[in-house]
Amino acid sequence: MQRHYQVPCPSLGTILSDLASLPSGVEILVAETDRIIGFAIFATIYPGPSLKAGIFLKELFVSQAFRGTGAGRLLMRELARMALQRGHKRLDWTADRENNRLLAFYDDIGGTVQREKLFYRLSGEALAAFADEG
Question: Cα-Cα-Cα-Cα dihedral of 30, 31, 37, 38, to 10°?
Answer without folding.
Answer: -60
